[in-house]
User: Fold this.
Amino acid sequence: MRINKYLAEQGVASRRHVDEMIMAKRIKINGVIATLGIDVQEGDVITLDDQPIAVNEKDAEYYIMNKPKGVVCTVSDDRGRKTIMDFLPETSGRIFPVGRLDYATEGLLILTNDGDLAFRLTHPKTEIPKTYMAKIEGTLTEKDLNPIRSGVEIDGVLTKKCKAHIVETNKSYTKVHITITEGRNRQVRRMFEAIGKNVEFLKRVSIGQLKLSGLDRGQVRKLTQEEIAYLKGL
Ligand code: URA
Assistant:
């Protein structure tokens, strides 16, 4: 059966979404990048971003985690470092992070095996606001943040407009709340690097209306039905 029809029938994603994921080279069948219109057989291992995807809506699982720093956002690590899987209940199935946090960054992470939701939440068009608390080395003024707000160049591409304001500043450090709608690799750290500043500590505190509050470092809980419905409506 055609891959888009198969995954749509299994409730993973609409046919159009499957095609978009294939064009973005995010889907593999048995380790090989899928092509549009390819057929799949019973028993094929289908992955999205190298993680197995759920094939049944009733098996879908959704978690929120407060990722500690010093933990890798992958299912396994060839360097033997701690991964987010070390914090999940053993009963959880094959789930994967939606939009990663880098090794040194802590905070709010969503995990699921719902390929359609993962696809929509990470699609550049979705533009979900993600807020971070960044502790920057040295003193900063509101004016220093203007380039960050209007867009700085990362890998030759300007970052989108974003919100940023100073929460606290003194001679040794400045705390900034920054809200971005993109999810480029190490984006917040690189935005500050672009204005010559070093991020000493970074924590994601919210994704849309979903807040980290109430979860200790390393703690995980299932998302409520309301939270799942909210994310699906984004
Ligand atoms: N920005 C970063 O620099 N790191 C992250 O993990 C997320 C956003």
The domain at 3-52 is CATH 3.10.290.10 (Structural Genomics Hypothetical 15.5 Kd Protein In mrcA-pckA Intergenic Region; Chain A). The radius of gyration is 19 Å. The chain has a mean pLDDT of 90.
